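Fold this sequence, please.
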Amino acid sequence: MLNTNAPDRSAAPVRMLILLAGLLAAGGLAAAEKDPVTGEPPPPGRVSCDMAVVHDWNFNDGDHGFTTTACDDDGAQVWVYGDLPNFPEFGAAWATNVGSNYPNDAGWGLLSPVFTVDASTMYMEMQHVYGIEPDYDGGNVKANGEVILPMDGYPVDEISAVDNYYAWCVDGQPGFSGFTGHADWVVSCFDLSAFLGQEVQLRFDFGSDATVNYPGWAMNYVRIGGNTVATDEVSWTELKRRYR
C-alpha cells in the first residue's frame, strides 16, 4: 500500500513533550498502574473464554508454528519470538521487538497455524500485555483477513483517527492501543462462530506511525477451544443456525 497519509513530523516534538509529561507525572511506564497519558486506569480487557481447550499454544514452550508476514507494503517487521527481559516469570513470548521499543513505521503481522472452526474450536483466548502510543499506534486480530472483535471490544475504535498520522496495517481500524500497565497481563476472548465450517488462520497485525515508540505488544499464549462436541441438546445444525 502506498503511504499517501505520510505523517507531518513538524507536530512530533509537541506530541512527544505531552506524552513525556504524562509519563513523568505517573512515575514512568515501568511502574505505572494507570495510563501515563490520561491518568485513567487501564481498559478492562479481562474477558476469558468459558471453553474446553483444543489447541494450547503456550509460547513458554515454543513458537508453535506461528510465522510472520507483511501486512502492508512498506511497514517494518516487528514480530519476534524470545524471552522477555521484563517478564522473566513468563518466559518466552511472541512480541513486537523483545526487550526494546517498537520502531517507527512498523507494519507486520503474526500468523497462527490454520485450523477448522467447529463446535470445539469456536473461541480464541489470548493472554497479552501492551504499551502502545494511544490512538496513533496499535494492533488487532484478524481471521482470514477480516478484523474480529474481542468480546469486551477494543479500547480504540479507530487507530490513527488523526490527520497526517498513518499506522501501517491497522490504520482506521479498531484495535488495542494505550497501556495495560507494565506488569498487567490481560486475557481477551474472541468469538469465531461466524467462521463455522471454515478453515481459519488468525493474523495479529501491529502498526505504528513515524514518531513516538513504546514497548509494544506481547503474547504469552493463544488458545483455541469451545464445546468439546456438539451434543444431542445442541446439534451441529443448531449451532450453525444460532451463529449464522
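The mean pLDDT is 80. The CA atoms of residues 63 and 81 lie 7 Å apart.
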